[in-house]
Write a structure and sequence with these properties.
Strand content: 15-25%
Shape: elongated
Radius of gyration: 29 Å
Helix content: 25-40%
Distance between the termini: 59 Å
Length: 593
């Protein structure tokens, strides 16, 4: 099917203004080479952070920018719109393309009543009489949940949500072919929002209106649209089927947007994307997202990625992504892992009697920057699995791949280098940390084993690691021994020791199980903040579901050496599928009022 609206290589650059600006000052590159299509009757969403260029695109489609600032092609049913004079644009606006703007409070004229302003496009563009226009405006307003009281009111007498509905009524008044809805659900309470979403669905279905939804409300995007365009700093970075992208984002930025979005099924605390949008007048070289991306490589810093077809799309639909690495990378992968222990180290004739299979056919993946929790009762095989994943144990069968390398297929030297990138935090720091070594020596030791830096450089990095976990860095504290520290301090020393090599992945085995509730909260929040700031992957092993639900993106439930359930943390907690998971949740401590 040919496109109703076709946008090709759209650029919107605003010249620098201000008394201190020179003629050669860099322009603001609000939109920088965007292309997409909207078919008749289709619903398409443009999503991204505030400042990414979403509203700028909407205004460009209506010719609301100075002509000199817009370059590229905008075709409506084959007719080129870029370059139209004001008379040409007047024939397009309201009748063919209409926009319900986000800032409805400033869009209305404060001296006219709402009814007159909704009726105005009907009189001007459809040449209806005043009576016909008023009647149609009333019918539209009622359909959108407004009453005659709202129509008699002046804009300042309406709430933000009511003004948003009135703006939508005005945009729909001339039954345009394309409706641009800019943040239509902002300012709406949850019930009004649900009604508005249902109404937009009905309008698009009954009238065949093509909807271009500009929104940061990802739930509304999921309910209303068939396809999604993800925008970052004026660039299109991912596009495809809405359900596919929202369920399985491929670009690190899209993944970050979804992690930051609150829903009623979100169990963990919200996590913002680290860093901030670049200056649109001076965007970074290469991929514009690379300063905030946890997996950026040298190529990302110098070469701009092009949109390319993504592989591994479950629906078979077209999925395009702008990433040199092909999208979000798997940091750690385990396939068909098995590990058995025999009684007293002997292999008997009957393994079931003489030992135990601690890990049985386990598959798992930890994505770049992700937090995964493995939960289960004592003896379910969690710690054995963790030690297999970091190479402390050799599996009887299966494979562990870290950053696409077979961990057990590497040479000794290569494996040693690999261990700089993956670190293990043991369950009991009293057992893991030598009582003979000072704090400074404990934290420096991994650098010495790896042969990294001079003595002074190692000491400086040890202080940095201790500072990162909020521990003192003075000589007195560096000289203390394990037996002089509290449990919380010792656990922080263990974390600092793991961080000193600047790893890409932490595997933490019950990192707070021996601490009181206050210290647990302090250490787990610290670990979460460090993980987010450094962009590390984190696999946390725990029996405490109440704890891991606050930090994990995904939860894997382990029973008798097997993964019996896996999924997003919110889904596993709110709608467990396996009887064992339900039993764990039922036994979890809770205040029963």
């Amino acid at each position: 099917m040919s496109a109703l609206l076709s946008v090709r290589d759209l650029h919107v650059h605003f010249p620098a203004v201000g008394e201190h600006q020179t003629p050669a000052a860099a322009a603001t590159r609000a939109v920088d080479g965007i292309s997409f299509d909207l078919r008749a009757g289709e619903t398409l969403a443009i999503v991204g952070e505030t400042g990414s260029g979403k509203t700028t695109i909407g205004r460009a489609l209506l010719g609301l920018h100075p002509p000199a600032s817009v370059q590229g092609s905008i075709r409506l049913q084959g007719e080129e719109l870029v370059g139209l004079d004001e008379t040409g644009w007047r024939a397009v606006r309201w009748q063919r393309i209409a926009m319900a703007v986000q800032s409805a409070g400033t869009a209305f004229d404060p001296v006219y009543r709402i009814a007159a302003q909704i009726a105005e496009p009907l009189r001007v563009h459809l040449h209806l009489s005043a009576r016909e226009a008023d009647a149609r405006a009333m019918a539209l307003a009622r359909r959108l949940g407004l009453t005659s009281r709202h129509l008699r009111a002046y804009p300042h007498q309406l709430s933000g949500g009511e003004k948003q509905r009135a703006m939508l009524a005005m945009a729909l008044s001339c039954e345009p072919e394309v409706l641009i809805a800019d943040e239509p659900t902002s300012g709406q309470d949850v019930l009004s929002r649900a009604q508005l979403v249902a109404l937009l669905q009905a309008i698009c279905c009954e009238q065949g209106t093509s909807l271009l939804l500009i929104s940061h409300d990802l739930a509304a995007v999921a309910q209303l649209t068939e396809r999604v365009v993800v925008l970052y700093a004026g660039k299109l970075i991912e596009t495809g089927d809405a359900a596919e992208i929202l369920a399985s984002p491929r670009h690190p930025y899209t993944w970050g947007l979804l992690n930051a979005y609150p829903t009623m099924t979100t169990a963990r605390d919200l996590r913002a994307i680290r860093g901030s949008l670049p200056d649109p007048s001076n965007p970074p070289m290469g991929c514009r997202f690379h300063p905030r991306c946890t997996q950026a490589v040298a190529r990302c810093r110098v070469e701009e990625p092009l949109l390319a077809r993504s592989t591994g799309v479950a629906s078979g639909g077209e999925r395009l992504i702008a990433c040199h690495l092909g999208g979000l990378q798997a940091l750690l992968e385990a396939t068909a892992l098995r590990k058995a222990f025999r009684a007293n180290g002997q292999i008997g004739r009957r393994p079931a009697d003489d030992g135990v299979e601690a890990v049985r056919d386990v598959d798992l993946v930890v994505w770049e920057g992700e937090v995964v929790a493995v939960v289960g009762e004592t003896g379910s095989g969690k710690t054995t699995l963790g030690r297999l994943l970091v190479g402390q144990l050799v599996p009887d069968a299966g494979q562990v791949r870290f950053e696409a390398q077979d961990l057990f297929g590497l040479s000794t030297a290569a494996r040693k280098r690999c261990y700089r990138r993956i670190q293990f935090i043991a369950q009991d720091p009293f057992d893991a940390i030598s009582p003979r070594l000072s704090v400074g020596k404990v934290v420096r030791e991994p650098l010495e084993v790896q042969g990294i830096g001079t003595d002074d450089e190692r000491q400086a990095r040890a202080r940095e690691a201790l500072d990162a976990v909020s521990l003192p860095t003075d000589e007195g504290f560096l000289g203390r021994r394990a037996h002089t520290l509290s449990g919380g301090q010792l656990q922080r020393v263990a974390i600092a020791r793991a961080l000193v090599l600047d790893p890409k992945l932490l595997v933490a085995d019950e990192p707070v199980s021996m601490l009181d509730a206050s210290e647990q909260a302090r250490v787990i929040n610290l670990l979460k903040d460090i993980q987010s700031a450094r962009g590390m992957g984190l696999l946390i092993i725990s029996h405490d579901l109440a704890l891991v639900r606050k930090i994990a993106d995904r939860i894997l439930v382990m029973q008798q050496g097997r993964i019996v359930e896996a999924g997003p943390a919110g889904r596993v907690i709110s709608a467990p599928q396996h009887a064992y998971t339900r039993a764990l949740l039922g036994a979890a401590p809770a205040f029963d009022w």
